[in-house]
Structure formats: C-alpha cells, structure tokens
Design goal:
globular, three-stranded mixed β-sheet, 361 residues, single chain, mainly alpha, two-stranded antiparallel sheet
Amino acid sequence: MKKTKKLMLLLLAPSGYLIFFLSSFIPHTVEKVYSNFIFKGIAGIFTILTGYIPVSFGEIIIILLFLFLLVKFILLLVRIIKKPSTAFKVLGNTLLNILVIFSIAYFSFMLLWGLNYQRLPFSEIANLDISPATTRELADVCENLLAEANKLRELVNEDERGVMALSSDINTTLKRAYMGYENAEKIYPVLKGRYGRPKGVISSEILSSLGITGVYSVFTGEANINISAPPASIPFTTCHEIAHQMGFSREDEANFIAYIACKYHPDADFQYSGIFMALRYASNALYRHDKEQYQALLEKYSDKILRDSKAISEYWKQYESPVQDISSSINDAYLKSNMQSEGIKSYGKMVDLLIAEYRKK
C-alpha cells in the first residue's frame, strides 16, 4: 500500500471521533436511525454469521492475531539485526502500519457499535424517574432487594461448600439467558430484539487475572462470558453482555438491564443472580452514604447469602495484582474516551435506575 493511501486512511480515526462527537448533540436521531435501525441490521447479520457457532469466534481471532503479531515481531527483529542500517526505515514503516490498522479499527468500531453510547438514556426510553434520591429511598431499595434475595436463595442449588451453584451445566445456563429477555420485553418493549447465543470463553482464567467478567466482541457481535467466575454472578454477567449485544453500550444501563432480565427469568438461579448482584451494588452505595443503616441491613443477610458474598470476594482477591490494576485503568480510560465522564465509577449509576424502578412500583 502506498504511503499516500496509508496517510489518507489515518484520517479515518479523527473522522470516526468527529462523527461520534457530533452525534452527542442529536441523541433522538441516534436512537431512531442508528440504534433502532442501522445497528439492529448489523446485529442481525452478526447473529446469522456467528450467533450459532458454539465457541467464541472473537476469542479465536484474538488468539490468531496474537500469534501473527508475535511472528511479525520476531521477523522484524531478525530483519533489523541483519541490516541495522535499515532499522529507522523499518521501524517507521511498522509504526505507520500500526497507526493505519488502529485508524481503520476505530472507525469500524464507531460504525458497528460505538455510536450506541450517544443514544437516549435508558431512563428516558423506559420512562424511569432518576431524580436525586434520599438515603431513606436507597435503604428501602436495599431492604426490598434483600428480602427477595433471602427468599430466592432458598430455591437455588448449593455446592459442597454451601455456595450457590447453577441449576444446569455452563453451556445450558448460557443458552437459558434469552428466556429472561423474552419476559422482560413485555414490561420494557425496548428490550425486544435478536441476538446470538452467549459464548463461554476458553481463556476465562486470563480474563479473571485482568478482573474481567465478560466482554462484548464488537467485531463479531458476540457476548463472551468468563465461565471461571463464581456461579452467583454468571447469569447476571451473561444478561449484561447480551444488553451490550442489543446496543446498550453504557455499563450502568447494561447492569440494570441485566438485573431486569434476570428478575423476569423463569428460573430461580437467574432470578437470584440478578437480585443478588443488584443488592451488592445498592448496599455498597448505602455503605458509602450511611454506614449505620448498612450495618443494620447486614444483620438481616441470611447465612447462605453471606457465604455467596464471601466466595465472590475470595475468588477475586486471589487475582489482585498490578496487572489487574493496569486492566482497570485501561477500562477506565476506554469508558472516558466514549464520553462516560465518570469512567469505571459510572457503574454506580445503576443504583439510580434501581431506585427509579422501585419508585415506579
């Protein structure tokens, strides 16, 4: 490829960001034209191409890409060692090629999914009141979630440690996730849509070391799930990634939608996972704002829920490392680059939606 053509391709990245920035001024148009028309067409094509493949096509591509880059790096070193005089030219061409690939990838990302960040807020679409809440409202939501969690916990399976276990094998569990959305769309019609089956990731342990529970693969349209994570969180994570697959990019909204899909699921393990994870988000918020009420709430947790909470904490504690900190920083930067100004803190906004749902009831 000639340098002139490469330099022209470099313009795709700023063009993509310009489209993204300008779209922030027309969320109604983005919602109607892109999210509910263009993206739904894209998602439908991905469902046909990758939705019925039992393994993650995106994961395979990443593994092959890693091997390809490793080989290219070795060949680059060999070339420089053989002809040191060409090192500057070779490195310059390599850097230009990397920038071209990044530019194409970023522009494609925006067209395939990224513009969903500029759609209308889910609260507006679903007519939910997210006006500022009192601590009393937050405490009431926590009490309500805990009562449901205590009741549902009696209906789910346990392993030999007394920790929540899924009612089916992991592949069947992932396949069952759609049932929650079929029921949820009757309450929230915007959740109606087509999506491919969620995929368990072979390299789940690597995701755990990075502190990641699931990944939406933009370029293959797949919901990828870390199946090594504690069972209590897997149904919730699966529904979260499906929410991304349906075009809900914002993390706080995907969390709330996952809770809704789990809540209306016919199976107790999904219901419990959604309520349990929502309780964790809400109670963490209560702890930050009123430690006394949080302690009073904690005394009402059943021993079984406490065991599940401890199992999750112990699981993620074993992966704490600088690598996970770096991964978190990268994720934070990614969210901020897509105009989620609070970065990873935006996950806390899910609580506003939980309170809004409670108000509506």
